[in-house]
Amino acid sequence: MPDGFSFQGFLARWLMAIFLVMATYNPSGYSYFHWVAGVDGQWIVKILVGIVLAILYATFILATLRSLGAAGIAMWVLLFGAIVWFLIDIGLIERLTAGSILTILLVVLANVVAVGVSWSYMRARLSGQADTNDVTLP
After folding, report:
1. What is the pLDDT of residues 56-96, one digit of tens each?
2. How far apart are CA 75 and CA 122, in angstroms?
3. 10-57 confidence digits (pLDDT tens)
4. d(CA 19, CA 12)
5. How far is residue 53's CA from residue 83's CA, in Å, rounded to a whole number?
6. CA–CA separation, 123 vs 89, rounded Å?
7. How far apart are CA 96 and CA 138, in angstroms?
8. Are the C-beta atoms of residues 30 and 124 closer than 8 Å to each other?
9. CA 47/CA 85 separation, integer angstroms
């Protein structure tokens, strides 16, 4: 059982997923997309940041696909979608504009990725199974 996984570990992964998704694009106008669309000529820095974002996306999405699979991703999207629907239904989310809908979708995407990169740890913790990487030989 992994001793290093905790709520703080999940929170760190969730914050990184939120940062990655929102830094790439968000409706506020402060994102990588808006920066690249700007007219300033810092192209080498923009390309470097784009490569770093692409590496992070590849890492997070591959880990999510490997740990959850397509069916698991669909189930988590359905769960987070149902939670959003419930929050709208009880009136906690009231004004739905195009920007707020996009922000909700981006947060759902970040939540699915955060669960995906944490799922193997959570599954091992919940099931009590030992990982071969965690076994020490005498």
Report:
1. 999 999 999 999 999 999 999 999 999 999 999 999 988 88
2. 16
3. 999 999 999 999 999 999 989 999 999 988 888 999 999 999 999 999
4. 10
5. 28
6. 31
7. 59
8. no
9. 38
